[in-house]
Amino acid sequence: MLAALALELDHPVRMGRRIARASDRRGQARDHHYRVTAYATPAGRILGIDAELIVDAGAYAMWPNGPFMETGMAARNLVGPYDIRHYRVRTWTVATNKAPLGPYRGVARPGACFAIERTIDEVARAAGRDPLELRLETLVRPDQMPYETAAGMVFDNGDYAASARLCAALLDLPAVAGAPASRRAGRPAHRRRLRRLCRADRPWLCRVGGARSPIIRATRAAPRA
What we know:
- The chain is of the alpha/beta class.
- The chain has helices spanning 2-9, 19-25, 69-77, 109-127, 131-138, 160-171, 173-177, 181-185, 189-192; strands at 32-40, 46-58, 86-95, 147-148, 154-155, 215-220.
- The strands form 2 sheets. It has a 4-stranded mixed beta sheet with strand order 3-2-1-6, covered by helices on one side. A two-stranded antiparallel sheet has the order 4-5.
């Protein structure tokens, strides 16, 4: 409604609420905190993920789902569409003085997708690899379908690598990656904030704007003798 009004009026529009009304009638979500360690070969092949996940559940549970669905779905989706066979995650659902967790579409996916994509970027950087190339090597292949992830999610079908290539071509990824810092610095402040575009292989993730990065650590596995 606000977006439609802003377009119609050609002017920013905002909505204000009294704190008491917002607390007992509105939910909150996506307040996730991740600590992720990736174990990879010197070439960047990810062998396993070790993660800690904390979710702010608010002051009390909201019927009928309770406070734990957000945490559980984030944990199940954290490995994403990648062929990562070893996975351990420890989760905490924390009660705070915020409004309770409320229902929304794509429960917990935005935070989990952001965390695994940042992890892939950090592993690529540590291995001196191109992030897209590493993604193409790590994504689940069509010949592996149906595929069950290390977290128990089942993929029926799909060609995720082809989707990633198409996305990179449509974005003109080399030009985006090579944009000079001076040109980026000259953009308005609202355009310099973090933006994550839709990925064809992650249809539920449209954008995470202005989010804080999770703590990511990339660890290379020692080569076997």
